Amino acid sequence: MLFFSAIPDREGIAQIVDPAQLNMAYPGRLIEHSSTIVLQDYLCLSEFSRENMPGNGHSEVLKLLAKTARADLDPWFAQCLNEQIEGGYFPNSQNLARLRSDIVARLANYRHQTEMVAAVVDMSGGLNAALTGALLKAAGWRVRGLTLLGNRNCPASAQAAEACGMLGIDHLDLGLSVGYQAIFAALDAVSTPDAGTDKINHSDLGARLRRMLLYEQARGLGATVASSADLADFGLGTLHLHESAGDLAPLLDLTRSWEVPWLARATGLPEASRNLTDGFILKRRDGADIRVSPLEWDIAVFALADAANRHPRAKGAALLDAMGLQPSSIPRWAVEAVWDRLCGTWTARLGPVRFKQPSDRLAVFDRLDERLFRPAVLCRTQADLSFPTNLNAAATELCRGLEDRGMRIVTAESCTGGLIAACLAEVADSSCVLEGSFVTYTASQKIAALGVSSQLIEEKTVYHPEVAAQMAAGALKRSPKADICVAVTGVAGPTEDQGKPPGYVCISCGLQGKAPLAQEFQFFGGPEEVLASTILTALRMAHGAIRGG
């Protein structure tokens, strides 16, 4: 259900719209409610048949996601859902069954390796809380479910007690009404008016008080605090890292629209406890309210992420246009609202802001913890091959440019050690443009693998523009299917080498059949900063070369 009292135009300026016009555009969808127009059920998900969404995966997703048969999912959202199912954003039952087994195994390993046996869960969290308790119990934890509500008579209190009984876990109902009201009144009396408000936010304060009580209960039991937050909580900014994330968050990577309810069904939670939230009411900058369902939220976030990867230079309205969102359309208003919420909550997802020093002191603790103290289940077992967003954007832009021109690229790298090629390889479908890479770290390899003149190296050292140019020429000669080469040689640091200061880098770029051109650069910062600057500059030089710049 979408609520709005004013509709923004293309520039985001609110425009009052005649309800009769909307009834013509969306017949049967509108009702009037006081001064607010309600677009009823336009964004609600309906029951889809196999004909609507071909394939078992599609119908399975939609059957579980469906909440009403009164209206169809908007065509733009339906198309995105199709693409995202195919792209693996909504995994099938086989993969989800493996996911559930993996979560239970990791929780069991964590319990065993840390010698922790008990966990406390705030059961006021509905479906998520029940699922968190069920997964912990399946992993052998002793679970205590707490009900921390200001009103014991509200339905959530009875649902929490029922869930604990069904799961066979301890339940403790802490009535907080009197204590909450006393604290609220005391703080209201001393709060300082700010930005037009004269009272504290009782909802936020209540959440913090519940968190404090949860940790006190855990301390008394020698237990860990398990959070029931999911991916939607993370995106909406309702979860603050290092403040309210708890000690253990098994659902944090899971979507509320699909993975959480699927796991709840597979875990045997009763149908009544698996009811999803009706949606999120988001506030747009023009003051209008819009209700977005969990499914629409997930689709919009994934679509924004995909669009940002496909169009690395597009932002704002240009990115929304590139997503096929028509101005003054329902899907556009919904995605704009998701955008605005993400924009206003990024600090909550980041955690404490810190500015990295040339010598990363926190990394010392990270290495110590991983080497000596963390349980094995938390230690890294996969290489972190992700690149910063500006490098990924430059690599994506270069790959798209090469693909449009039917060209392939080869790299010849010294100080970057193959990172330019790795950055290109991270781009989706890069295999159609990336021919390969020569990593020639030593002078002897530059001579043997690329045919760089030994006399040149002896006279000029390996850190010279002519060496970079010969590296590019040699790579192209040995890669007949490549159309362009970018080559780098330089001193990443932290100390000088062969008379060249840290940050001195030579980059050459050449097209097949043409003499490569080379340039000298002086980058600043530590080795990581120098390498990042080198990669970015090399990618941009290559993109400029294929464009004739």
Rg over CA atoms, rounded to whole Å, is: 28 Å
Biggest sheet: strands, sense, closure? 5 strands, mixed
Report the structural category: alpha/beta
Uncertain parts: 1-57, 67-71
Number of strands: 16
List the helices and strands and how they pair.
Elements (H helix, E strand, L loop, with lengths): L1 E3 L2 E2 L5 E2 L3 H7 L4 E4 L2 E4 L16 H10 L9 H12 L6 H22 L3 E5 L4 H12 L3 E8 L5 H13 L2 E6 L1 H14 L11 H20 L2 E3 L4 H6 L22 H9 L12 E4 L5 E4 L1 H17 L5 H7 L7 H15 L1 H5 L10 H13 L15 H17 L3 E5 L5 H7 L8 E6 L3 H8 L3 H7 L4 H13 L6 E7 L13 E8 L5 E6 L4 H20 L3
Parallel strand pairs: 6-7, 6-9, 7-8, 12-13, 12-14
Antiparallel strand pairs: 1-5, 2-3, 4-5, 10-11, 14-15, 15-16
Protein name: Nicotinamide-nucleotide amidohydrolase family protein
Pfam families: CinA (PF02464), NAD_synthase (PF02540)
Keywords: Ligase
